[in-house]
Amino acid sequence: MRCTAPVDTTAEPSAPVTRAQRHSPGITVEPALPPRASGRHRRSRNPTASPKHPDGRGDGVMTDDDDDLLAAAFRRGAEILTSLLEASGGGWSAAEAAAALQITRHTVRRWHAQGRLLAISMPGGVVVYPRVQCRAAADGSGPPRPYPQLLQITQRLRSRMKGGELFALLATPQPMLPAPDGRPQTAFEALASDDVASVLALVEWIGTPADAEAPRASRPSRADSL
């Protein structure tokens, strides 16, 4: 008979620690939304049911307490995204983005698929395009356009961050991106002041795997094996 330990319902859910946070105290990333529980998980009303085996393997059992913790984490993540979006100037719907950028809605979605535009999925399934990712034309003669570096940023981090996580990174003040007065500024603010090199250096640091700097083990030569 297998014995399971009771679930600690008082512990707060912790966000995963990224490589950048482990190796550089100067990078700040707002907590990301936790992964949703898949349909394969079975719900259990047994308060002593554990979501893991004693050896650490998941057994697929989700308790009501686990659901409560996940729901609280999702609410907190939505609050963070909403706060960052409002602080950065708000967002557009697809129709509003098309009107502001003077393009079609099909082009808005195509630019998003290509990585030229960031989109955030908000509670209720609403998709929002942050305004802060676009800047007005230098001569003021044309409509605003996304920062051209966004394409490079999204391509570098697409496999590691979703849209909301990437926006949180770029919209959160970073100590590694100091303004002239010394205060931390966001990546969007750095792009607006043409400090492109610092933003790309931050992105490259985050996008580098944790073991990329580890020396590769050399294969023994035939002579060494004799």
What can you tell me about this protein's structure?
The protein has 226 residues and is an alpha+beta fold. The protein is built from nine helices and nine strands. A three-stranded antiparallel sheet has the order 3-5-4. A two-stranded parallel sheet has the order 1-2. Strand 4 and strand 5 form a beta hairpin. Helix 3 packs across helix 4 and helix 5 packs parallel to helix 8. It is globular.
Model regions low in confidence, pLDDT < 50 over at least 5 residues: 7-25, 31-50, 217-226
The amount of beta strand, in percent, is 5-15%
Class inferred from helices and paired strands? alpha+beta
Helicity, as a percent range: 25-40%
Using only C-alpha atoms, the radius of gyration works out to: 22 Å
Largest sheet: 3 strands, antiparallel
Adjacency order of strands in the biggest sheet: 3-5-4
- Counted by DSSP, the helix tally is 9
For the terminal residues, how far apart are their CA atoms? 53 Å
Overall geometry comes to globular
Report the count of strand segments: 9
Mean of residue pLDDT?
76
In N-to-C order, the SSE pattern is HEEHEHHEEEEHHEEHHH
